[in-house]
Amino acid sequence: MKKHEKDKEAYSRPQKFILHMARRGKEWSGKVQSFDWNEEFQFTTLEALRDWLNRRRTEGEQE
């Protein structure tokens, strides 16, 4: 996987999370707490978690 400059910048700004996950059948669900954004997000699929993290990364780049 080739890394781009934009990705390197995003990875150079570490974020602090607490991630609680549980497996239900074949799917994962849980809750993520972010210290940097002072926010909590509950998810029922890994796709929802990924989308939430991508939105936070995009918002961080705009600041």
What does this structure look like?
This protein is of the alpha+beta class and 63 residues long. It has helices at 5-11, 46-62; strands spanning 17-24, 27-34, 39-43. It has a domain at 28-60. It is built from 2 helices and 3 strands.
Helix content range of the residues, please? Answer: 25-40%
Into which percentage range does the β-strand content fall? 25-35%
Spatial strand arrangement across the major sheet: 1-2-3
Number of strands: 3
Mean pLDDT across all residues, rounded?
79
Low-confidence stretches: none
Instruction: Give the termini separation.
Output: 27 Å
Oligomerization status of the protein chains: single chain
Give a short account of the largest sheet.
3 strands, antiparallel
Which secondary-structure class do the elements indicate?
alpha+beta
The number of helices is 2
Q: Which of globular, elongated, flat, extended, rod-shaped describes the shape?
A: globular
Question: Whole-number radius of gyration?
Answer: 13 Å
